[in-house]
Specification:
single chain; alpha/beta; five-stranded mixed sheet; three-stranded antiparallel sheet; 10 strands; elongated
Length: about 220
Amino acid sequence: MKILAVETSGKTFSVALNEDGRSAASFYYDCGYIHSEMIVPSVERLLKDTGNTFQNIDKFAVSTGPGSFTGIRVGMTAVKTFAQILNKPVAAVDSLSILEKSFVEIKGVKTISAIDALRCEVYVKDGEKIIIKNIDLFVKDLKKYKNKILVIGNAAISYREKLCKGLGKYSVSLPYIMHMPKAQVLAAMAYRSLESTDYTKIKPLYIRRSWAEETDKK
């Protein structure tokens, strides 16, 4: 099975091809919000370099967010278009879950994914639900894990000082690149267990309205 994955939920974006559980190729970009200009050329290059065409793809995978409203829309639109034209299924997964699967569990250490929601808030999981939590409350709720917790996601970069002070230096010790959800991981998830659905049924995960929409409302 060949799975083409696209991850565009943040400032970085990536595309990846998984063939029968093996990561065949992937591209990762961290040069600003160039998603709309680069996504199609990146996918075309990925397919060409691996000797494939769009017709060879069995399933697509896409990140639903939360994250950048514009980035999520770009990725979702591209994948839905590919799937519609080729009549292929799509696996959709949230970016917090992708981050969780990016890192192996360490005995005695709690790992938690958190994405910067701006305005001193973070996107986090509450069971199966994704919520927005104030960064101070986030730190307070995890205080009991101080020095035994790792925060994965760009919240560890944006709120490094608060996390370091409240949860210990270890909580923000992962390298920068580990905090970004990647298409390579998403593709592997789609191959292993994620259910797929018709492209018409996948929707972006917007936990709140965009800043522009909220400002306009006022």
